[in-house]
Structure formats: structure tokens, C-alpha cells
Amino acid sequence: MFRDLARFSSGPRQRPLPYAAAGLRETPLAREIFLTDDDGPTAATEAMLDILGEESVPATFFLTGEHAAGLGRRDRQKRLVQRILREGHLIGNHGFRHFPESRSVYAEVYGDLSDVRQQAAFAANLEKNLAFFQDLLADSALRMPLTRLPGDGSLLPHCVREVSRIGLRHVAWDVEFAPNDTFAHVADCDWQGIAGAACSSPQLPAHGDVILIHGAHWKSRPELLRAILRKLKEKGYCFSLL
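Above: the chain sequence. Below: its structure as C-alpha cells.
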């Protein structure tokens, strides 16, 4: 199913111009970063889209079909994904199931990906996710060439190579934000003076960094996400699409 997508992952990475609507002039000081959201669509996606629209920030949403089913109503799922696309964001493939997650379970499920059975099992999770959203949107031409493996998959070189081998482009991340005390690895609490917001690094992102958030974490604290986006723009960052 994925072979016709090889053209999306060939050649050097081409980054787009900064997002013009972000309210920043393109200057030598502007730093470009890329916002990504995992595990949607969820009940928090609509509120997150409201914030992104208000702040004129584009994002790439890595969707998980199993979580979409958890929304209950198919028409609601469809409207959310349509809104993501209509408002100028991108969607990517995060697997139909958010499984496996840990390194040890990846090894149990897919081994070293050296034989065709392991490779087929690996591809099946991504293929099923693409088929789910094609059916949801009634669009057989829908493609999701951008891929992020769930859990620790991004940290496993042989799994990332397998994503490329089947013609997709894997997208990892450099910096993660979450509310305080959400994750042990997102440990810098009250980041840059924003009470309640944590980051995986006390420093500001570097030019070109990919930022990871999970929309569900901000459902009850939307003001924190808004404060992070505003802080980054105030510091001279512009947001672009992958």
C-alpha cells in the first residue's frame, strides 16, 4: 500500500517558509520550529484547534485511529479531521493502535524486523491507520506520508529504517512540552517562568527543532498551551509545517 509514497521521502528534507500568519516578520533573527501533536483526534482536539487558530500557529497532527474510535460518534471524528485539514494543518500516521510502546515490547512484537513476517506485522499497524482515515473521510486518495511511531519506536533505529523502507518519512521530535508533573522526562517545571508548564529542556528550542505536545494533556489547562505559544513567538520563533 505504501510503495507509491516513496516520492515523499526521497531527497533532502525541504522545509517550507515560515508561517506568514504567525505575526512575525522574516528576519535573520527569526528561528523556525515545528509543532506536532500526538494521539488525536481526541475530545481535546477541538479546543486545541481553537488555540492554534487564535495564535495563528500551524501544526502536524499524528493521528491514531483507535483513539478516534474512542470519540464515539463517527460524524464527530470526521468533522475534527476535516477541520484539521481545512484550517491548514497537516496529518500524519501514528499507527492505528498506540502499540507497542516500550522498547522491550517492540522487540517482542517485531523482533529485529529481519524477516518478512515481522515486516508485515510492522507495516500492518500503519496500513490499517491509513485505511481507517481514508474510510472516515470517504477519500481513497488520502495519503499520510509523515509517520511517527508510537512510544519508544522513534528511539529504535531499525524501526525508523523500516518506516523509510516502506516509503514513508519518519518524524521524531527534539523538545516536549506538558503540564507540570505529567512525565518524568519532561522535568523542567514552570518552564521559562510559565507556572504549570513543563519542558524536556530548560533551554529555548534550537532553530529547526520539532516540538511535541499531546493535546489531551491541555484539555483542562488551555491557558498553559497558549502561554507557551506566545512565549515562543515573543522570543522570535516562527512556526512552520513539516
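Residues 116-137 form the longest helix (22 residues).
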